[in-house]
Amino acid sequence: MAVEALKIIRVGEEEGRKLLEEAKANVAKILNDADDEVKRFQEKAREDEQRLAAEISAKYVQEGKREEAAIMKTVEEESNTVKAAAESNLDSTVNVVLERILGVR
Amino acid sequence: MGAKEMVEEIKEAANEEGARIIEEAKANADQKLEATKSELEAQKQQFVAAEERKGAEEKERIVRAARQNARKLRWTVEEEMIEKTLAAALERIDGVKSGGFKDISYPEILAGLINESALSIAAGSSAGADVEVLLSEEDATASYVDQAMLTKLADEISSEKGATVQLSLADERIKSAGGVIVRRKDGTIEVNNTFEQRMARLSTNLREDIVKTLFTGK
Asked: How far is it, in rounded angstroms, from Cα A7 to Cα B93?
């Protein structure tokens, strides 16, 4: 009778040990999954950084190009105005130069 | 307590312990994920701020380069017009030779240049100076300057400045659009009053005058 009881208890202990083993395996899986999730977050963060870097750079380059175009447009208009003024003053300026180089000033 | 009850107790304890360590693991995993999220979010904020700074610097670089290009373009346009003016002035020399300039004939212009050059040489020669005048082949052939003119000029200089100056026409010719080179016959002093040389010599003042007249009309 006592032998039978001991057997039952051993079987019970074995089942209890198995239950604990299963729980530990679950714990390991939970922690592993968490590590994998962390890696996924980090990977996604790296991808996000690359995308953000490209977006931010493109935004500022575009702004710079827009300002560049405006600056060049303005200077081209100014240059045309200066050129037109100079063309209309060319004859009188040539006279000034001639006065100087001919020594008749 | 019977064996079966003991077995149930053992299994219940194992179940409870298993549930406890699983719950603890879940809590740890959640905490780890939250900490990672927070850390990554903070990193992202820093990264974005750094990229914004880099972007703004790149933009500033583009704008600075554009401003520099604008200045260069403005300068190029001005330079082109200045060069055009100088070229036009040299081109008009032929017209000056045939028609004069502001009612002054070309021989009179040459006389003025010879006078200025000879005076400069005489100023450095207390004992008088024997001076010769060099012309271009074209000007010599056209006889814009003759000995009579030189003698008259020499007399005027001698009487005005009290220094004896003798002027004569050299056989040697110069390569020039016009103007003269005047030098002592002993070669010690030479005044180059060719138009090209005068243009180069007067360059700084000339450019100031050109800029003023060309771009402001004054």
From this structure: 131
Q: Is residue B52 located within the same domain as residue B121?
A: no
- Look at the alpha carbons of B96, B98, B103, B105 in this order and tell me if their dihedral is positive or negative: positive
Query: Cβ neighbours of residue B172 under 8 Å, at least 6 residues apart?
Result: B134
Which residues, 6+ apart, have CB-to-CB distance to B80 below 8 Å? none
Is residue B143 a part of any domain in this protein? Answer: yes
Determine whether the interchain pair A90/B29 forms a contact, defined as Cβ–Cβ distance below 8 Å: no
**Is position B118 within any domain?**
yes
> Per residue in B127-153, pLDDT tens?
778 999 999 999 999 999 999 999 999
Could you tell me the pTM of the whole model?
Answer: 0.76
Please check whether residue A54 touches B, CB under 8 A: no
Q: Are B153 and B115 in contact, with CB atoms under 8 Å apart?
A: yes
Q: Which domain CATH number covers B159?
A: 3.30.2320.30
Pick A30's closest partner by Cβ from B11, B25, B195.
B25
Q: Which residue of A20, A52, A64 is in closest CB contact with B63?
A: A64
Lowest average pLDDT, out of A40-44, A47-51, B9-13, B25-29, goes to B9-13
On whether the CB atoms of residues B195 and A101 are closer than 8 A, the answer is yes
Distance CA(B218)–CA(B206), nearest Å, equals 14
Residues B114, B195 share a domain: yes
Quickly tell me which residue has 């179940």 as its tokens: B15
Number of domains in chain A: 1
B111 and B84 in a common domain: no
Among residues B106, B79, B104, which one has the least CA distance to residue B177?
Answer: B106
Q: Helix-strand-coil percent breakdown of chain A, rounded to 5?
A: 95, 0, 5
